[in-house]
Every structure is written in C-alpha cells, then in structure tokens.
Amino acid sequence: MRTESFKPVHVKSIGSERARTLAPARKHIVRSIAAAEQVIRGLLRPLGLKAGIVSRNLFATRVRELVGGDAMLEAFINPLLAGREALSGSAPRLRRLVLKAVRTIWHVGS
Question: What DSSP assignment string belongs to the chain?
C-alpha cells in the first residue's frame, strides 16, 4: 500500500469544533422562531384573524387577543405558542454563548 500520496491536514481541536457549532445552532433556533410565527399567522389568516406588524415580545399576546376565548382555536394555537416561547427562551442563551466564544477566540488570537 502506498502512503506517499496523502497530504498532511490540520485537525481542529474539539473546543474549536464546538465553538463553530454555536452560530449555526443559534441561526437554526432564530429561523425556527420565525417559522413558528409564520405557521401561526398562516393558520389564523383564513379565519380573518391577522396579527399585523407586532414585535417578537408581543406576538404571543397579540395572537391570544385574536383567538380571544375560542376553545377550538386555543386548542391548537396554545401548543404552537408554547413551542415558540420555548425556542424564544433558548435564543438569548445561545447568543450569549456565541458572543463568549467569539470573545475567547479573539482574545486568544490577539
């Protein structure tokens, strides 16, 4: 077996690989939050219920106002809102981890 044809490659450290996974993970969560909001808006629109332009912080409140006590709508909207809120709760933590990793990399690299 000939081994002269292989070129040496740089193997990244485990810490480096972990740091590189933070940004895509955060990006996925942010996109999932937006997707959940779009699904909720899409389910309410045929019923004539439009959330309009509303901030991320007030989205759930606005949707609950629109649903307004309709048991059938609440039955499927509340679980979707709960999933969106769970994702929203983890996004700031991942953002802090990304910033911490970037600061560490820049501090070490300087």
Answer: ---TTPPP-PPPPHHHHHHHHHHHHHHHHHHHHHHHHHHHHHHHGGGT----S--TTTHHHHHHHHHTT-HHHHHHHHHHHHHHHHHHHHHHHHHHHHHHHHHHHHHHH-
Rounded to an integer, what distance in angstroms lies between the CA atom of residue 41 and that of residue 58?
14
Quick one: residue 48, left, alpha or beta (phi over 0 = left, psi -120 to 50 = alpha)?
left
Instruction: State the Cα–Cα distance between residues 98 and 40, nearest whole angstrom.
Output: 29
- Total-model pTM: 0.75
For residue 109, what pLDDT is reported?
54
